[in-house]
Design brief:
Number of strands of chain B: 8
CATH class of the domain at 2-137 and 263-307 in chain B: Alpha Beta
Shape of chain A: globular
Strand order of the largest sheet of chain B: 1-2-4-3-5-6-7-8
Strand order of the largest sheet of chain A: 1-2-4-3-5-6-9-10
Largest sheet of chain B: 8 strands, mixed
Distance between the termini of chain B: 12 Å
CATH topology of the domain at 2-137 and 263-307 in chain B: Rossmann fold
Strand content of chain A: 15-25%
CATH superfamily of the domain at 2-137 and 263-307 in chain B: Alpha/Beta hydrolase fold, catalytic domain
Number of strands of chain A: 10
Number of helices of chain A: 8
Largest sheet of chain A: 8 strands, mixed
Radius of gyration of chain A: 18 Å
Shape of chain B: globular
Oligomer: heterodimer
CATH class of chain A: Alpha Beta
Number of helices of chain B: 10
Helix content of chain A: 25-40%
CATH topology of chain A: Rossmann fold
Strand content of chain B: 15-25%
Distance between the termini of chain A: 27 Å
CATH architecture of the domain at 2-137 and 263-307 in chain B: 3-Layer(aba) Sandwich
Radius of gyration of chain B: 20 Å
C-alpha cells in the first residue's frame, strides 16, 4: 500500500509555551511550493472536528502540500491549562506555526486554513502579518457575540436532561461550556470579535466555505469583495461537524474537503 | 513534568504523548499508566480530560502514555485485515514494549473510557504485565440501540432518576407543558434496553466473571468506574452481580460510581470528580502492585489533593 505522507508529531515554539504540531510531509509525486497551516477551532469544536481536519491534512499532503496542524496554547496536546487560552496568545501561536512551517519546509508561500474560531484567528493573524499567500475560511466566527450565544445555547441544551448543578458545584470565575472552562477574560475577548472591521486584507486568494447560517456572513462577504483579494465563495449543504452528534460520531464532510483541496491545487499550481 | 511526542509500533505509525514525572525513583519504579482512546475520540479525550489526567498522574510519579490506535486521531490506518479488537490489543502491547524499552518499566496500569475500557480489560486478560486496569463506563454488550442516541439515553436516565421525584416536573407533565414525545421515546428506550441486555448478557456475563476471577488470582487490580447516569452500570450489576460482590469484598475488584454525571463526563464538575477519584484510587493500588507495601521510597512529590488543579486546571 502506498504511503503518500509521513506524519511527524513534535513540539515547537518558545520553551515556556510549547505547542504541539503534526507535520504531514508529502513523500510521493510533486512537492508544492506552498505549505499549509491548519488552524483548528477550540474547546469541544476542536474535539469534534479533529478527525475531519486530520483527513484534510492527509488529502492536501496527497496533493503534494506539506501541512502543519497544530494546537494552540492551553488546547489539545500543547502546554498550558485550559484556562490560560486567550485570543492574543492564539494569534501569536498562528504566527509561531507559520514561522515553524517555513523553517521546516524552506518554502516561503503559506496557505492558512481555518475552521470556526480557527478561521477567525487565521484571518486576523494574516491581516496583521500580511504575508500568507492564500487562505481558506471554513465557517469562520464572524461575530464573537453570536458565537458565544451559540455556545451558551448548546450548553443549556446539554443540561436539559441532567440534574442541575448546585451553585456550590459551579466553577468560580469560569463558565462551563460543554466541559471546557470559558474564562471571563476570554469571554470578553470573544465578545469584541467583529470580523469585517478588524480583518483588513488577509491574503491574495481567499476561499470562504459556508455550511452554516452565520451571523455577519453578508458583511464578511462584502468586506472581502471590496479588497484586492481574489475571493471565491462556496456554500454547502453539509453537517456542522464541530457540533456534538447524538450518537457521538465524528463527521467528515468529504465534499468540503474535496473542494478545499481542489481550490488549493488551482491557486498553487 | 515533561511532555514528549512519540512515534512507536511495528511501523512507527502510532502517535502518542509521553508525560514523564518530574522525579522518578529507579529502585521502586511505579507502573506506567497507558490511556486508551475513549471510542473514536483522539488521545486528548472529551474536555481534554486525558491531558489533565496524564499531568496529574505524572505529578504523582507515574510515567503516562496516551496514544491513538491506528485509524483514530493522528495515527495512520493499518493495512492488514486485523479487526479493531485484535489490533487495539496488539497496539496496546506495542505501547508497553515501547515503555519497557525507553523507560525501563515492566508493569502497567491501563485506563480507558468506553471502548478503551473494553480494550483495557481484554489486554489485561492476555498480558501479565498489566497489574491494574481502570475501566470507565465499560460497555458489556455491543447493543446498537445503546450507541445510537446518547440524548435519549440521558433523557431516560433523567426521567427515571430525577424528574420522577421532582414536583416541578410533575407540574409540567400535568399541565401539558412537558415534551411528551421525548418522554415516550425515553421510556421506550429504557424498556428496549432492559430486554436487549437481558437477552444478550448470559454469554458475556460468564466470560466477564471468568476474566475477573482470573485477573484477581493473578493479582491484577480491576476498577470499574461508572457515571451514575450510564445504563451500563445496571448491565454490570445484572451480569456479574454475585461474583462482583465477592471480588469486591476480597478487595481485588472495585466498583466506583461518579454521582450525577453522564457518559462523557461533560461538565467541569464531573471531570473534577473523575480525576480526583482516579488519582486517589491509583495511588492506593500502587504500593500493592509494586510489591513494596512497607518501603515506599517513591512517594509522590506532592499529595493527591495538591497535584490536582483547583478548578479545571490543565
Amino acid at each position: 500500500m502506498r504511503q503518500a505522507e509521513k506524519v511527524a508529531p513534535f513540539y515547537f515554539g518558545s520553551p515556556d509555551k510549547l505547542l504541539f504540531g503534526c507535520y504531514h510531509e508529502p513523500t510521493l509525486g510533486r512537492r508544492r511550493k506552498c505549505a499549509v497551516v491548519v488552524c483548528q477551532p477550540v474547546g469541544h469544536e476542536y474535539i469534534n472536528s479533529h478527525r475531519a481536519l486530520r483527513q484534510l491534512a492527509a488529502r492536501l499532503c496527497d496533493a503534494g502540500f506539506p501541512v502543519l496542524r497544530f494546537d494552540y496554547y492551553g488546547c489539545g496536546d500543547s502546554s498550558g491549562s485550559r484556562e490560560e487560552g486567550t485570543i492574543l496568545q492564539w494569534l501569536e501561536d498562528v504566527s509561531t506555526a507559520i514561522s515553524e512551517v517555513r523553517r521546516r519546509t524552506a518554502v516561503v508561500q503559506v496557505c492558512l486554513i481555518g475552521l470556526r474560531l480557527g478561521g477567525t484567528l487565521a484571518m486576523i493573524a494574516a491581516a496583521q502579518r500580511a504575508d500568507p499567500e492564500s487562505m481558506v475560511l471554513w465557517d469562520p466566527v464572524v461575530s464573537g457575540k453570536s458565537y458565544l450565544d451559540g455556545l451558551l445555547r448548546l450548553q443549556k441544551e446539554m443540561l436539559r436532561f441532567r440534574p442541575k448543578p448546585s451553585s456550590a458545584q459551579e466553577p468560580q470565575g469560569y463558565l462551563d461550556v460543554l466541559g471546557f472552562p470559558l474564562s471571563r477574560f476570554l469571554r470578553a475577548e470573544l465578545e469584541k470579535i467583529d470580523l469585517p472591521p478588524i480583518a483588513g486584507s488577509p491574503a491574495k486568494n481567499v476561499l470562504v466555505i459556508q455550511s452554516d447560517q452565520t451571523a455577519g456572513e453578508a458583511n464578511l462577504k462584502e468586506h472581502l469583495s471590496q479588497r484586492e483579494a481574489r475571493l471565491e465563495y462556496q456554500r454547502f449543504d453539509a453537517p456542522q461537524i464541530w457540533r456534538p452528534t447524538s450518537d457521538g460520531s465524528l463527521l467528515v464532510p468529504s465534499q468540503i474537503l474535496h473542494s478545499i483541496v481542489s481550490w488549493t491545487n488551482r491557486v498553487h499550481r | 513534568m515533561r511532555e514528549q511526542a512519540v512515534l512507536f509500533g511495528e511501523v512507527k505509525s502510532l502517535i502518542g504523548i509521553l508525560t514523564d514525572p518530574p522525579i522518578r525513583n529507579g529502585n521502586h519504579p511505579k507502573p506506567a499508566v497507558i490511556l486508551l482512546n475513549p471510542g473514536i475520540v483522539h488521545r486528548v479525550a472529551p474536555g481534554r480530560i486525558y491531558v489533565r489526567m496524564a499531568r496529574a498522574l505524572a505529578a504523582m510519579g507515574f510515567v503516562v502514555l496516551r496514544f491513538d490506535f491506528s485509524g483514530i486521531g493522528d495515527s495512520a490506518v493499518r493495512y492488514d485485515n486485523l479487526p479493531f479488537d485484535k489490533s487495539a490489543i496488539r497496539e496496546t502491547q506495542d505501547a508497553m514494549r515501547f515503555l519497557e524499552a525507553t523507560r525501563g518499566v515492566s508493569r502497567f496500569i491501563l485506563l480507558g473510557g468506553c471502548s478503551g475500557a473494553r480494550i483495557s480489560l481484554q489486554t489485561a486478560c492476555c498480558d501479565p504485565r498489566v497489574v491494574g486496569a481502570f475501566l470507565i463506563n465499560l460497555q458489556l454488550t455491543e447493543d446498537e440501540d445503546q450507541n445510537s442516541d446518547q440524548i435519549t439515553r440521558s433523557a431516560a436516565f433523567y426521567y427515571w432518576n430525577f424528574a420522577l421525584f421532582n414536583l416541578k416536573s410533575w407540574y409540567k407533565l400535568l399541565t401539558g407543558k412537558a415534551n411528551y414525545r421525548n418522554i415516550l421515546r425515553a421510556l421506550g428506550f429504557q424498556a428496549r434496553t432492559q430486554f436487549a441486555s437481558r437477552r444478550k448478557m448470559s454469554a458475556e456475563s460468564i466470560q466477564l466473571a471468568a476474566n475477573l476471577r482470573m485477573l484477581a488470582e493473578r493479582g491484577a487490580r480491576v476498577t470499574f468506574l461508572y457515571a451514575e447516569s450510564d445504563p451500563q452500570l445496571n448491565d454490570l450489576r445484572e451480569a456479574v452481580g454475585c461474583e462482583l460482590k465477592q471480588l469486591c469484598a476480597s478487595g481485588k475488584v472495585r466498583v466506583q460510581i461518579i454521582p450525577r454525571s453522564d457518559h462523557t463526563f461533560s461538565s467541569l464538575h464531573d471531570q473534577e470528580k473523575l480525576l480526583k477519584k482516579i488519582c486517589v484510587l491509583i495511588d492506593a493500588i500502587t504500593p500493592a502492585t509494586a510489591g513494596a507495601l512497607n518501603q515506599r521510597q517513591d512517594r509522590p512529590p506532592q499529595s493527591v489533593e495538591e497535584t490536582l488543579p483547583q478548578h479545571g486546571g490543565n
